[in-house]
Design goal:
Length: 142
């Protein structure tokens, strides 16, 4: 697997690069992700913060913090979403759609009971989050 993958916002003013391998990949069905992404589900890739870099257009990165758990970042020119820093998890979610060159390989669905679109892909569906990051780890029906 190549070591670095780049991506950009919707207009290309902000470029981003991830390196190494993510800590986790999957889909979040929570209402916050759906509302922020304006989509029925959010595909996430979670990285250690040091593996995520803004390589161009840092001056166009806007931030919105609704809760201390999520520092959401977007391009102020096009409104395109880039990533969400999760200080409480110590991880940064770079949306899979933002880094299309990265071979997205989801392993889990989180916050599945909040779903508006069931996805029958056979992957585990969690009630909230894995126990390792403070969730219940409880599996719910697909
Ligand atoms: Zn942009
Ligand atoms: Zn979510």
């Amino acid at each position: 697997m190549a070591d670095k993958y780049s991506g950009a916002c919707f207009c290309g003013s902000v470029e981003i690069e991830v390196s190494g391998s993510p800590e986790a990949m999957g889909y979040c069905h929570c209402s916050s992700c759906r509302s922020w992404s304006a989509a029925p589900v959010n595909a996430f890739t979670l990285w250690k913060p040091e593996n995520v870099k803004i390589t161009k257009g840092a001056e166009f990165v806007g931030k919105f913090t609704k809760t201390p758990a999520s520092d959401r970042q977007f391009c102020t020119k096009c409104g395109g979403h880039l990533l969400t820093v999760h200080p409480t998890f110590g991880l940064t979610d770079v949306y899979a759609a933002t880094i299309p060159s990265y071979p997205f390989s989801p392993a889990v669905h989180v916050n599945y009971p909040e779903n508006v679109m069931r996805i029958k892909d056979g992957l585990p569906k969690l009630k909230d989050y894995p126990a390792e990051i403070g969730g219940s780890g409880q599996i719910v029906p697909e």
